[in-house]
Amino acid sequence: MSGNGELSAQEIIRLNREYTLFSWSVQNATNPVPVSHGEGVYFWDVDGHRYLDFSSQLMNVNIGHGNKKVIRAIQEQAEKLAFIQPAFATDVRGIAGQKISEVTGLKKTFFTLGGAEAVENAMKLARLATGRQKIVSRYRAYHGATFATGTAGGDPRGIPNEPGVPWVRHVHDPYRYRCLFCRDLPECNLMCEMHIEETIRLEGPHTVAAVLLEGVNGTSGIIYPPRNREYWQRLRQFCDEHGILIIADEVMSGWGRTGKWFGFEHGGIKPDIIATAKGLTCGYVPLGATIVSEKIADYFEDKMLYAGLTYSSHPVSCAAASACIDVYKEEHLIENTVAMEPVMEREMQGLMERHPSVGEYRGMGLFYVIEVVKNRETREPMTPQSGTLNEPMAKLAGYLRQRGMSTFVRWNWIFAVPPLCITEEQIEEGMQIIDEALEITDDYYQGD
Ligand code: PLP
Q1: Which parts of the chain have pLDDT scores under 70?
Q2: Is 209 a pocket residue for ligand 1 (Cβ < 6 Å)?
């Protein structure tokens, strides 16, 4: 039996739990939904219960579930040529590379299998091309779960696997709501950017290969500087002065999520390298990409590229990427994201007004987060920003699931990151459920 719909919900869960390991979980605490199929912004369990996908799974199914154009492209490519090793050339690889170059403005793509490998190879190529070792990245960031990317992300998820690699240095984040530098000032003072420059000066600019930043920090709480353009432009200038590359991690903030093709576009700069995955194929099949500027591509024209993967440029994945890029354009998904932003803002504002436990919401496009707090004055998070959910947040997450809402709840954050094909009515449907759930955390509120 290969999963043809004959197993009961109970049996699926038993087999999954008995024979497979679940990521980021204490195994005996897992309680997975046995999923059957998906369509648009919804998916169904094997007993027919419908879930509204308000986080696009792991913020990757940007085009929504069950898109026929992408499915057909995968089927056709699998029939024609399911695999050829990466030393060969294929039509789908070349076409996907060209389309990626068009939307990113960079030149060449090295295809990986997912986000961590894309970031890992971005760091590797930056180090090879500059002949320098260090990578500077943010604390509240996630770049993947390999050793090097785990070190690059300063998020606590990396701590149990320390020590990681020795050549990463961390800087603080532009987290205005809890900012070390400006949270009590009326306006951001851009110290978050000056602090990167100062860190690099102290480290020795000649030792730094690249600054690695998410276009908009994703699972670390949808963080971006309030003075976004100035932040990126000052950083770009400083890096150019010192021959330091900028790597934009667009694994999560890329592919229309923020209302532009890529998150860094809000900063009005061009990075030297983009690492991306997720919305590149929207999870239909795995694929990541490390995309480099013409200058870096030229460097490797007469020098060895010390990087490789058996499944680099996998034909089926390249066919899916090519089809996905067409879908973003033909179905006007980025335009829809821009159109839905005011709807998200209106709904979020309503939650802020009705629920004392909402400390702040922030985001752009269809990339939003709600900060649930015990007290609006002190901004104390409803659950500590480490470890597993405490009682109020676990109850809230349980309520969402019971009401048929699937979204990402991490620490004191509720994410609202639906597929980019969502309609106004579907946003309202999701926000209504979150509205009800917040009554739970309001009961634990300790402010006035
Ligand atoms: N970079 C960012 C910004 C991410 O959000 C993620 C995953 O969530 C990754 C990298 C790692 O991607 P993957 O899980 O495909 O390895």
Answers
A1: 1-5
A2: no
